[in-house]
Design goal:
The N and C termini lie far apart (87 Å). β2 and β3 form a beta hairpin. The protein is α+β, with helices and mostly antiparallel strands. α5 runs antiparallel to α6.
């Protein structure tokens, strides 16, 4: 076994975290591949990145000296046969530092990193910045879940949605799974805790008649009207519409196609659009120009969206994302099978699309009950 002192720059604080990488040899996987075995000890020691003053330099020198002494101690423990991967010094490691490191490794994945970051923030609010592995047992996990459900708040002061609660707890559990994998802890204490159930909310959408009615009504912001109707006819999210460039729009022998990476999932999407949808793109600009110039996610545009709906006599709580719901429901209503719709929406899992099928089932039940009682 070998012990190496490693450094990792913290992207937000600007400091440099010190940790030990413990090389434990190799193992052979069932596939016959040789895999290195490593575990990590986070020391909760930090260097000042780019020290400028003599005080900063001396602090870095003292911190590094302390880290090296810990490294030497671990090497001695290994040499004397006292080192084990579930020893107290491993369990005394700060889980918050470990979680932070896992979060920063996901910084390239915007959506995933955001969920990890939010889970970490709520964990810190619940437990503070000092939380050792040995403090995390099943009671702690249950209490953290209860905190997410009943106490945690969003930035606007509202309680977390059931989907957020579930997502954040899953990230917490995943971090503990990683700790087991690295042999920091022998087992995951959260495995016996049930994951919070996600409560499905009503998804507002426009019917075909309502869609026709808003086409006829005036909207103060012409780009908002074009973008919303384009989403209703394509199912593309606001974020992807807002980032759409003319270089991503291509006329082919079969019609018009849009090629783009989804902002949410980063998946590459090839989407053929109808001539009707194409008409809402407007006048073509330079390849690097945005298609929907002037489109903004702002309070005044959200207010105007509501006013536009009201002019058409629609009192539903319609947001821009409801355009995507509208597309999905209309496609299923008009006979598009669910697998094709899943591909059009860019869903990675069919079960995500099946939520819309439930809406159609409700409409079918309403339809069969419309026939009056024939016995009267």
């Amino acid at each position: 076994m070998k012990v190496h002192l490693r450094q990792r720059k913290q992207s937000k604080s600007g400091s440099i975290s010190l940790y030990l990488e413990i090389y434990k040899g190799t193992t052979t996987t069932p596939e016959g591949k040789v895999k290195n075995l490593r575990s990590y000890e986070y020391l909760n020691l930090y260097l000042i990145d780019k020290p400028r003053t003599p005080t900063d330099k001396q602090q870095n020198k003292d911190t590094l000296l302390l880290a090296k002494s810990i490294k030497a101690k671990r090497e001695l423990e290994i040499k004397n046969g006292l080192y084990g991967f579930t020893t107290d010094f491993k369990k005394n490691t700060n889980f918050i530092d470990f979680f932070t490191d896992l979060t920063e490794k996901r910084i390239q994945s915007k959506g995933n990193h955001g969920n990890w970051s939010s889970s970490l923030k709520h964990l810190i609010k619940f437990s503070g910045t000092k939380l050792s592995f040995k403090e995390i047992d099943s009671d702690f996990c249950e209490s953290f879940k209860d905190y997410l459900i009943n106490t945690a708040k969003k930035t606007n002061g509202k309680s977390l949605s059931s989907s957020s609660v579930s997502s954040y707890f899953i990230k917490f559990r995943a971090a503990l799974n990683e700790a087991v994998k690295q042999k920091i802890i022998p087992s995951n204490p959260s495995l016996g805790i049930t994951i919070p159930k996600v409560v499905e909310h009503i998804r507002e959408y426009l019917t075909l008649e309502e869609l026709k009615s808003i086409v006829k009504e005036e909207c103060r912001y012409e780009v908002l009207k074009r973008a919303f109707l384009f989403s209703c006819l394509t199912g593309i999210r606001w974020s992807d519409i807002n980032n759409l460039r003319w270089s991503q729009v291509e006329d082919t022998n079969e019609g018009c196609r849009i090629t783009f990476h989804q902002q949410k999932t980063k998946g590459l999407q090839y989407l053929d659009i109808s001539e009707q949808a194409k008409s809402y793109l407007g006048e073509e600009g330079n390849p690097d120009d945005k298609v929907f110039v002037g489109l903004q996610y702002s309070s005044y545009m959200n207010v105007e969206l509501t006013k536009w709906m009201m002019r058409a006599g629609i009192t539903k709580n319609i947001t821009f994302h409801c355009a995507r719901h509208t597309f999905a429901v209309l496609q299923l209503t008009l006979g598009t099978e669910i697998f094709t719709l899943s591909k059009l929406l860019g869903h990675s899992e069919l079960r995500t699309t099946q939520i819309y099928a439930k809406i159609i089932d409700e409409k079918k039940r309403e339809a069969v009950n419309k026939i009056p009682d024939i016995n009267i």
